[in-house]
Amino acid sequence: MPDAKKTVALVNGTGRQAASVIRAVTSLGWKVKAQVHSMEGLVAEELEELEGVTLLEGSLLDNPVLIDALFEGAQVAFINTFPNAGDEVKIGKALANAAKKRGIQHYIYSSMPDHSTHNPHWPALPMWASKFTVENYIRQLGLPATFVYAGIYNNNFTSLAYPLFCMDFKDDDTLEWRAPFHPDTKLPWLDAEHDVGPAVLQLFKEGPKKWNGHRVALAFENLTPNQVCVAFGRALARPCRYVFDPNIEIKVPIPAGYREQLAGIEVLFGRFNAPYFPGPEFQYPSKGRGSGETVTAARRSSETIRSKPKKLTSEARELWGGYRGIEEYAREVFPLEEEANGKDWMTAKKVST
Ligand code: NAD
Predict the structure, then answer these.
(1) Region labeled Disordered — which residues (predicted)?
(2) Mean pLDDT of 138-162
(3) Residues 24, 198 contacting (CB under 8 angstroms)
(4) Which residues touch 91 (CB under 8 Å, ≥6 apart)?
(5) Which residue of 7, 48, 123, 167 shows the fewest CB atoms closer than 10 Å?
(6) What spacing in Å lies between the alpha carbon of 149 and ligand 1's midpoint?
(7) How far apart are CA 167 and CA 229, in angstroms?
């Protein structure tokens, strides 16, 4: 059974996480049933062309017919909901109920933490806490499930004026990233398009016998903002400076709810220097705050001290060793994405120093 070809149900099929899974599983001849918000756009067109892919177009909110059809004939599922698609908790619960009814054998749910459950001073980030509520619901339902926690996508970076991950090209040809993350606190990184698919495929292959109930950090590198800037600087052959700024400047229109998310990020990471993924399963040895202090103490007092604390990235790297790191991303992919966004810094003559 472990190597049998399966049918995978997915939602938000054109999103970076799900599309990566679809590419990986179809390359092995597995079948896919994926809900998409719209059949228009490059990714939907690409997926439609793949052998064995059925796309179901429509909303997930209050749509039991589509949701039931999605799981019909599928054995496993990868579920990453998208906040703009409507009430994520309602959608998440409806999907889990339907999966249970259809007897899904392995439900991989893309979750995120609710920091307020770890420390009363830490705020819950609204766009993450809803996913954590659904994770708890899935656990209560008793679905055979694994909970993946996606790290920060490498390709969040852009030189467009979006908040939080703007890699700003200065007039003197240097780069600057400003954010409320502490400069020397490690953060988990992921190349979502490149690496979610192969890692999730391996989870499906190893199955719920190994992974039922587990939380897995989908993060292949654990780098501080200063280290990220060193990688970008090396890749793009220009100095890159990280500036800790407790306030996130919002210069462009942003989706509903994102303002509250950003305000929470300022408090959680800027003020409290909280670990990005809290909780014992994500703890790893480190000197920096926000990346292990509470953990080490918790571990010392726990009976699980027997084994060496694992690294945040170890499970993801065991699942998939061919990941794309941020330096490779910055060198190989970032310039192409920038060009697609109408930027020309990659061909423009450098200011001579
Ligand atoms: P994505 O952001 O790559 O794509 C979103 C998709 O939703 C697009 O295909 C778009 O066509 C579609 N869409 C646009 N408007 C829509 C609407 N109104 N209703 C429904 N769909 C619509 O998606 P993704 O990155 O695979 O998943 C997003 C989720 O991942 C979010 O919940 C986010 O919080 C979470 N996440 C992101 C990061 C990160 O670093 N960016 C990290 C961890 C988790």
Answers:
(1) 286-310
(2) 97
(3) yes
(4) 60, 61, 81, 85
(5) 48
(6) 14
(7) 9
Mean pLDDT of the chain: 92
Nearest CA, atom 15, ligand 1: 84
pTM: 0.93
**Three-state DSSP class for residue 231:** helix
Could you give the 3-state DSSP secondary structure of residue 143? coil
Q: Let me know: does 28 contact 5? Beta carbons within 8 Å.
A: yes
Coil, strand or helix at 13:
coil
DSSP 266-279: IIIIIIS---SS-S
Residue from 12, 133, 277 whose mutation best tests the ligand 1 pocket (most atoms within 8 A of CB): 12
How many whole angstroms from 82 Cα to the centroid of ligand 1? Answer: 5
E strand map for the chain: 7-10, 31-36, 53-57, 76-79, 106-111, 145-150, 152-153, 167-169, 175-179, 187-190, 215-218, 221-223, 240-244
> Quick check: 104 and 77 in contact, CB under 8 A?
yes
Structure tokens given for 220: 């292949």
Check residues 297 and 249 and name the one with the higher pLDDT.
Answer: 249
pLDDT at 346: 84
Going by pLDDT thresholds of 50, 70 and 90, the confidence category of residue 296 is very low
pLDDT tens for 274-295 read: 999 999 888 765 544 444 333 3
Sign of CA dihedral 152, 153, 154, 157: negative
Sign, Cα dihedral of 260, 263, 268, 273: positive
* CA 119 to chain centroid: 23
Which two tokens mark 277?
Answer: 């993924």
